[in-house]
Specification:
Number of strands: 29
Structural class: mainly beta
Shape: globular
Strand order of the largest sheet: 1-2-20-19-18-17
Number of helices: 1
Distance between the termini: 29 Å
Radius of gyration: 20 Å
Order of helices and strands: HEEEEEEEEEEEEEEEEEEEEEEEEEEEEE
Largest sheet: 6 strands, mixed
Helix content: under 10%
Amino acid sequence: MKLLYLLLLSCFVCSCSHSVRNNDKLMGIQLDFDLSAVTDDSLFLSEFVSEAKQIPLKLPDGEVIGEVGQVFFTSSEIFVVDRRLNMVFRFDEDGNWLSSLNKLGEGPDEYLVITNFWVADSTMYIYDKRMQKINLYTCDGKYIRNIKCQYRCSDIAMTDAGSFLCLTPDFIFNNPMGVWMLDADGNYQKTLLDYEEKYPVIFNYWKYIYRNSSEELSVYSPISNTSYRYDHDSLSVNWRIGLKQATLQAYKGLSSSMDIKGDCFIPVCWLDATNYLFLIWGNIRGDEPAYTLYNKKDNQVKISKNLSVDVQGMAELGSPVVTNLSDCFVTSIPYYGSYILQEYRLR
């Protein structure tokens, strides 16, 4: 997946032949893109990034980060999830190491895989899809308790009320499919968006449930290319993308990506910021990737096959990583057993 990211970051594409329709609050914004249309030879990062900075992550002797998978920022600390080693590293805001969490195992205070991670009320939450539970720890790594989940999901986030918003885009036997809820104790509540048909399983490190620029909990459906806003156990549309190229919608009834014979574009990563909607699309066939940048203020979309990193102090863009920041695009660069985080603040 990292190699795919590096390939994606060498290009930038958005739609020339497109339309933008502003509908009512219930229907959201309809964006129609043609990824084959190009408007600019090169897109300059400075057009939509106001500033950027680097945060070198400083580790003690003997500690290494295998691969940055997810980064969670609080007001004073940075939590880095290592998806290769299944560890959590905790740093201060300047990148100085504070502590590490390594609880790999099958015990009640352990996990087999870090599927998702977040921090709330000075507590670390780790969702383990394989063991079907959420483990809670203090920020310095002391085990608190776990929450057994009645069903398994691909992505999960805690609501302001303490319940859990879940997404399962692929078929799992005897399991809810679509967008659904667990209560604070891990019990199934109800389904908010039901996927009645089977679609191919496409693995993606990017998280489908996120906070948008208004700090609203949102969930992106890879089946319909739609972002939904969550509010009091109901969903309404933020935006919807109609892509001219084939997406997962074209392969209804298939259960495996191996059965897809033609093109199939999926979003590899995206950022739903205050003034911009930024998506990077990849074709599962491995063809040239495509990037879309929609300006929410003037409803304009630019397209390019090249991205010029012209922000002061930055020599390369780096590999995108999942964060809890809505107006900041974060990438990582390996550096002598550790990593450098790069924050690109959007205008």
